[in-house]
Write a structure and sequence with these properties.
heterotrimer, A mainly alpha (about 220), B mainly alpha (about 110), C mainly alpha (about 575), A: about 220 residues, mainly alpha, Four Helix Bundle (Hemerythrin (Met), subunit A), about 70% helix, about 0% strand, B: mainly alpha, Helix Hairpins, 3 helices, elongated
Amino acid sequence: MASILFLVIATIGLATALGTVLSRNLVRAGLYLVAFFFAVACLFVLLEAEFLAAIQVLVYIGAVAILLMFGIMLTRDTMGDDTTAIPVGWMVPGLFGGLCVFAVLVVGINNSIAPSGWSPWEGTSSRPSIVKEEAEPGWVAERREAVNDMGRVIGVELMTRYVVPFEVAGLLLTAALVGAIALAHREDPDPKPPRSANRAAGPGAGDGPSTEAEEPVASSVSS
Amino acid sequence: MNNDIPLNWFLYFAAASFAIGLVGVLLRRNAIAVLMAIEIILNAANVNLVAFWRYGTPAPGSGPLPGVILAILVITVAAAEVAVGIGLILLCYRRWRVADVDRYDTMSG
Amino acid sequence: MPPTAPPLDFRDFWRIAPAATLALWGLVVVLTDLGLARRLGLEARRRVVGRLALAGVGLALISAVALFWLDSLAAVDPERLRQLLGASLGDYFARSGEVIFLGALASGVSVDILNFLYLILLALVIQLATSYRFTDDWGECLALLIWATVGMMFLSAAEELATLFLSLEMMTICLYLLTAFEKSRRRSVEAGLKYFIYGSVSSALFLYGLSLVYGLAGTTRFDAIERILAGTSTTAPGLVGNLAGASALLLMLVGFGFKIAAVPFHQWAPDAYEGAPAPVAAWIVTGSKIASIVALMKVFLHAARPWSFPSNDMMGPGWVGIIAVVSAVTMTYGNLAALVQTNFKRMLAYSSIAHGGYILVGLAAAAVSINGPAAAGALLYYLVIYAFSNLGAFAVAAWLVRDRSADEIDDLNGMGAERPLLALCLAFLMLSLIGVPPFGGFFGKLYVFMEALNQGPSQTRIILVWLVALGLLNSAISAFYYVRVLKAMYFRPRSGAGLKPAKSAIATPVLLSTLVVVVFGLFPQPLVDLMKSAAGPMLVSSSADAPISAPPAVSTAPGAAAR
């Protein structure tokens, strides 16, 4: 039962990943990416890390994918001219190369050598049990508590054993915020108003009204 | 349950996602498409980490959840990276109206 | 609440005082620039914010020196520590050199020395950053420089893969942002985006390799990984048959190779160094490279040491062979490409790529030398000299940009006559980069190459001799393009308007760098000994970590895993 579920989710995941990479239209690629993130979240649930699945959905789908969509919309390369897709001549060599990389990794995974006394990856056909028994190794109790009460244990770990990476992550987010705003904000007056360049360069009926609409959106997003 | 999912299946999925992401990174020419492929690779690494955590036996000294904590930190870094990337891409777009990685050739040599 | 939290010793926070001070001070700088300093004019604001940043670096320097003094006192006279600090803190500081934060960071004299180095370099870079106007967002710029340094400090002290990855990303994300900071120039923005794309790809590959290493070892701590990898060598030495391990190491090498601009992962470097504002380029070339090399040393010489060259065969299953090949290619390509450059910053970029090659020779040497981990001290000495030489050179590049808005080598014409003292300093720096005695660069290369040849009876000697010979040949080739700078300064008449006097913001970095290079060239031994004593403990498992016993064999029979 679990195997069938895994196969379905994995197929969906790989298909959407392929869709992201091969699609000409960037908006469609973004939507495929959202589906891929969701498939990965389902895999986390299968691995009994439900807290992580929730974080994956909230952060990746709720923030990263939305941000990518903003980026796509603001750069307006959505209709897939030749520059956004993989050049046709490279498609077959690219797929062949990808298959080679995959084959190397699969061979490596199948033949990995484990430290003495541990089971190699190939032989691990089922996960260590966390059902309470009398004669269990010491770490099983810890893991059972971790799996059953993951939020609390993550909090404890992030505040004790992993406090340095945690604080650095906080500082990283602050730095990214400060830097990205400093880079992207518009000074007044803007030295090269894009409006005049656009009128000079852009043909076609679609450019006029949508540029008007783009300017206020862009300035409200970036200021 | 007797018919549990073998560990290798998760690893194959991660390896396949890694290969797909790598192909995307090397072949796509739009900067945002490259960012999306990078996210696929990061997610493959996350699946690896959590699968190894659940199916492995822990070494003493690392705590009960190293794989999951690493995955959370990776998600954080990925979010920050995408924010920085979109900021830089928008900055470039304002100059040249394209978001193509290869078109930036003012410097040569 | 059940008391299952692992016991974190809160006194550990004293040991990260320099990095914590810098992190908070970055916020202070940003807030001051946005709040108090807005009323001032542009020039005044630049000066005020610059001085404020330097004050913060000064505070961090005081704490770094205090920690160094406490750690050296702990080795000599622990009783005095207890008298000075009281019982609890005194006992804590008497145990110097252990891993802190339950295994996340290292501590001790080596960490203190590296922190001190980063802080000195940061002070010079901040001074350089306030020397000319390349942006209007001074608070954000200096705060990002400061926060990048926090990343570097944690990167050099990391004892664990999580800390390593986070601090690596911290450092490089700040540098991506800084590279694009000169928004008004097209080349800066383009450089920032290129650096970002290449960097993010390589860090994603690095992370996948990291996940495979975690899978192989079951833990993220370096000393535990070393023990576990040593345990596999009875069944199959090194990477023999271990394709997953080989791919993991290779992927991590790709990530690190990008950070140190090794060929073929160097594509971003010339554009980034040319496009970035000169102070930022100086920080990427010096600080980021030092921190990345130290992290590379820790991962490959400490965590992956059992896989360096098992079975004593050079091209056998180990990473020494790969590093040697990468080093040879990097040296040669960097030097040959620098020969044809006319832009000063671009020439410095390729020259620093070539120096990355020599540094990798040092890494291979530290793996095979009979001095063991102490051989990495030669590498650290080389890094110090390399950092100061390049800092001085980029300071001159900043001067050129300030006055001429261009940094071609021709812009240096006639500087020898006009500004003799600073031209002499640049001449000394160029000579040190070539490796001419009696400057520091000569001794750096001498010690590194000597360590590469200093091996016991093994077959790796042969190939490393070849590598050293290639290194010497490359140093000779490199003389041609460094001498071109000297020719422009002394033998060509001035072209165009002259350079205005270099104010202290530019003169101080140049003078101080030259001083360091000359002094440690005339008296290299103290610094080399200091670095050797620092490198040894950094790469060896400390005594206070938990012993790893083989965990109980997990039964893989499906029936036993009843849920």
